[in-house]
Amino acid sequence: xxxLVPVKRVLDYNVKPRVKADGTGVDLANVKMSMNPFDExxxxxxxxxxxxxxxxxxxxxxxxxxxxxxxxRTALAMGADRAILITAEGPVEPxxxxxxxxxxxxxxxxxxxxxxxxxxxxxxxxxxxxxxALLGWGQGTFASKVExxxxxxxxxxxxxxxxxxxxxxxxxxxxxxxRLNEPRYASxxxxxxxKSKPLxxxxxxxxxxDVTPRLSVxxxxxxxxxxxGVKVADVDELxxxxxxxxxxx
Amino acid sequence: xxxxxWVEHDNASVKDAxxxxxxxxxKLGDVVALVAGSGAQAAADAAAKIAGVSKVLLxxxxxYANALAENVAPLIADLMVGYDxxxxxxxxxxxxxxxxxxxxxDVMQISEVIGIDGDQFTRPIYAGNAIATVTSSDAKxxxxxxxxxxxxxxxEGGSASVETVSGTGDKGLSSFVGAEIxxxxxxxxxxxxxxxxxxxxxxxxxxxxALIDPLADKLGAAVGASxxxxxxxxxxxDYQVGQTGKIVAPEVYVAVGISGAIQHLAGMKDSKTxxxxxxxEDAPIFQVADIxxxxxxxxxxxxxxxxx
Lengths: 249, 308
Prior knowledge:
The complex is a heterodimer.
Chain A: E1 2-6, E2 9-11, E3 33-35, H1 37-51, E4 57-64, H2 68-78, E5 82-87, H3 94-108, E6 112-116, H4 127-135, E7 138-149, E8 152-159, E9 162-169, E10 172-176, H5 188-194, E11 199-202, H6 204-207, E12 215-221, E13 230-232, H7 235-245
Parallel strand pairs in A: 1-4, 1-6, 4-5, 5-11, 6-10, 7-10
Antiparallel strand pairs in A: 2-3, 7-8, 8-9
Chain B: E1 2-6, H1 16-26, E2 30-37, H2 41-48, E3 53-60, H3 69-79, E4 85-89, H4 92-104, E5 110-113, E6 115-117, E7 120-125, E8 130-136, E9 141-145, E10 161-164, E11 174-181, E12 194-198, H5 205-219, E13 222-225, H6 227-231, E14 252-256, H7 262-268, E15 273-278, E16 291-294, H8 297-307
Parallel strand pairs in B: 1-2, 1-4, 2-3, 3-10, 4-9, 5-9, 12-13, 12-14, 14-15, 15-16
Antiparallel strand pairs in B: 6-7, 7-8
C-alpha cells in the first residue's frame, strides 16, 4: 500500500511570530522555517507503517514556494521515498490544497493519506477533512493511534471528552494529533542520501486546479495584551483575594 | 440571511458549545438549528427552547448516531441549498464535520471565528499570536466558532417548531467502534466557571492528583493541565489547555506550576481572572496573571486547599 503524506513549510514553532507593522500579515523574512510539527508526525507514522511492512512506498508532497523543497528533503531524509513539489505563487488556502491533493491522489492511488491535523501558521484544521470530501473517502481526524488491517483502518481519535475509535474503509484519510508518535531525527547519512531521492516539480496548472483564494485578509493585528497584576506575599493574602472575587465564601 | 447551526448534543440535552454558536449565528441572520442523531427527539425539543432559534431540523437516523462526518456532511450539504451560512461550534465534532461540508459546497471555511462584524470575521492565527480579519468571496459561508468568544444563548425562552428531515444515511465509508470518555463529577473544562490547571512542576501523576484534585474540589472547579504535564504523562490529554488542547475562558483560572509557554497562554489568556502559583518569579505566566504567588507549590497548594 502506498502512503501519501502532504507537508507544509511554516514558521518554526520555537520562533515567536511578529505581526508586520503594516498589518498585512506575520513577518516571515529572515526567520527560521521548518516542517509543520503535525506533518512531521504524519511522516513518522508513514515510516512506521513501512517498517511494519504495511506501507510499500511513501510519497511526500508540498504545495508552496520553491523553498518548500527543503521541507520535502527533510521528509525524504526521515525516510520517505520520493517527493512532489507543487510550486504556487502566494498562499494557497486549504480548499485549493485539498483540490490539488485530490488530483495527486487520483494519479498516485495511495491506500492512505496521512496529514497533520492543522498547520501551526493559519491554524485552519481543514485540509484533511476537505480532501476526504473531495475524494469521497472516510476520515480519521486527530488520530492518536492508527491500525491498518486488510482493507480497513482503525483510527483512535482525540475528542473533547476523551478518545473515540472509528473504522474506515481504505483508501482513507488520517490526520495526526500530537500523541500519535514522536518523530525521529534524520541522520546525517540519510540527509545525504535524501539529496538523490526523486523530486518531481509541478504547478497547479499541471493539475488544472484554480487555487485563487476565496478569503481576503483585511488586516492582521497583535492580540490585545494582558497586563501583569499584583503579587501576593502568602497564602492568606491569596485567600483574601479569592474571597474578594467571590470565588469562596 | 438564514443560518444553519450544528447542534452538539447527547440525544437528551444540548451541549453548551452550541449555545455560543447560536449567538454567533444570530449575528449573521435567522437561526435554524440542526439536530442530527439517533433517538434525538429530546435534544431537538431542548434546542427548540434556545432563545434565538427560529426552527429546529431533526434528522433522526441510525447513520447519524455518532456524528460520523462521512454521513453527516452530505446531509448538511444537501440542506444548505436553503441556507446562506453554516455555523458549527469549534469542538472536535464541529472541526471534524464543517470542513467536509465546506468542500462539498466548494466553499473555503473560516475556522475558529472569535468576532463577526458585518461581512468581516476575526480569527486567531499563529496560536493566537496574531488576529486576522478576513472577508469571504464565497456565496455561502461555512464557519466554526470559538465558544469562549461569544455569549451563551439562553436555554429557555424560545419556542421553535421541530421539523423532521432526512438525508442519504449511511455512506458505508466509516463506522463507530467505541469511545473511552472520561467520566467525572467535576464540571466540563470548556464550560467551567473555575479551572485549576497543573503543570510539569508537579513532578508526577500521583502528585498532580494529590495536589490539584483537592484544590479543584474545594473550589468546585474543573481540572486542566499544560501540554508539558500531559506529555510527561501526569494527566490525560483531554485535560490539556492550550493551542493544541482546549481553549478555555473561565471566570477564574488557577495555574499551578505552569511556566506559561506561548502554546499554553493561547488556550487560557481570555480567562477573566488568572491566578498563578509558581516558584520562579520570572516565569512568563506572571506577565499575564492578575494575582501571582511566588512559592513552592508543594507547600502553598496544600495550605491553600486547607484554608479555603
